[in-house]
Design goal:
Blueprint (H helix, E strand, L loop, with lengths): L1 H29 L8 E2 L1 H8 L3 H14 L2 E4 L3 E4 L4 H25 L2 H20 L2 H19 L2 H11 L13 H17 L3 H25 L4 H4 L1
Antiparallel strand pairs: 1-3, 2-3
Helix pairs in contact: 1-3, 2-3, 4-6, 4-7, 4-8, 4-9, 5-6, 5-8, 8-9
Length: 231
């Protein structure tokens, strides 16, 4: 039985490795660290993620199906074009799902769930005061996870997750003003949930996501993602 569990866990781990690669490369692309038209070498990616070349290729193939990379015969994988509208569309889709989940949470949230959400937000504030970007990112995700759990809408949450993974989440904490705006939005959202104000919760959640789109586009412009267009 123990051997069987080990085998199954090993299989799960092998399935996770390509997704770890895909997550890493998505972040490189959507944060502007690699540019459209740039070839992706498997060796540096394998070394950065800590895997062999096989899961790197599998991860890149999954990104090909998502439109992030293209496969050039006999040359390898190249970063696919991404436009400003692509970025804004991703934020728009995330905002629609997030707004609906927040509205449902306002109807369904229990006192215990509200207490957990408030506790996470307090920890987020402490991390912001300390300038701990890793904790800021982790607690920001946890805040929204608790909110989505309160909405009790599993399928909608899965759809949201499929959009969120396309966005450059890890560098949000480094965007000037983002953390301050997040603190204000989270506090306002908690207040709306406490009062069961469905429409207000929806509006705050949608605005919170959409406000990030222009900031991310601006950062990507500064990083030269669309420099060739200017030329």
């Amino acid at each position: 039985m123990a051997d069987e569990l080990t085998r199954l866990r090993g299989g799960d781990r092998r399935q996770q490795l390509p997704e770890e690669v895909a997550t890493y490369v998505r972040e490189l692309i959507m944060s502007g660290d690699v540019k459209p038209g740039e070839f992706l070498r498997t060796e540096p990616i394998a070394e950065a993620v800590g895997v062999s070349n096989t899961p790197v290729r599998e991860g890149l193939l999954s990104l090909r199906s998502e439109g992030f990379v293209e496969l050039v015969p006999r040359r390898g994988f190249v970063v696919a074009p991404v436009s400003r509208q692509d970025v804004r569309d991703l934020f728009w889709a995330q905002a629609q799902f997030s707004a609906e989940l927040a509205a449902r949470a306002a109807k369904k949230i229990t006192p215990d769930q509200l207490a957990r959400l408030e506790a996470v937000n307090e920890d987020f504030e402490k991390a912001a005061d300390a300038g701990d970007q890793e904790a800021i990112t982790r607690l920001g995700h946890e805040f929204h996870r608790q909110l989505n759990l309160a909405a009790d809408s599993h399928r909608l949450t899965l759809l949201l997750s499929s959009v969120v993974k396309h966005l450059p989440n890890r560098f949000y904490a480094s965007i000037e003003g983002h953390v301050e705006h997040t603190l204000a939005d989270h506090a306002e959202l908690v207040q709306a949930l406490r009062g069961r104000h469905v429409r207000k919760a929806r509006t705050i959640a949608e605005r919170h996501i959409l406000d990030g789109a222009d900031n991310v586009v601006r950062i990507l412009e500064e990083r030269g993602l669309w420099a060739d267009e200017a030329e």
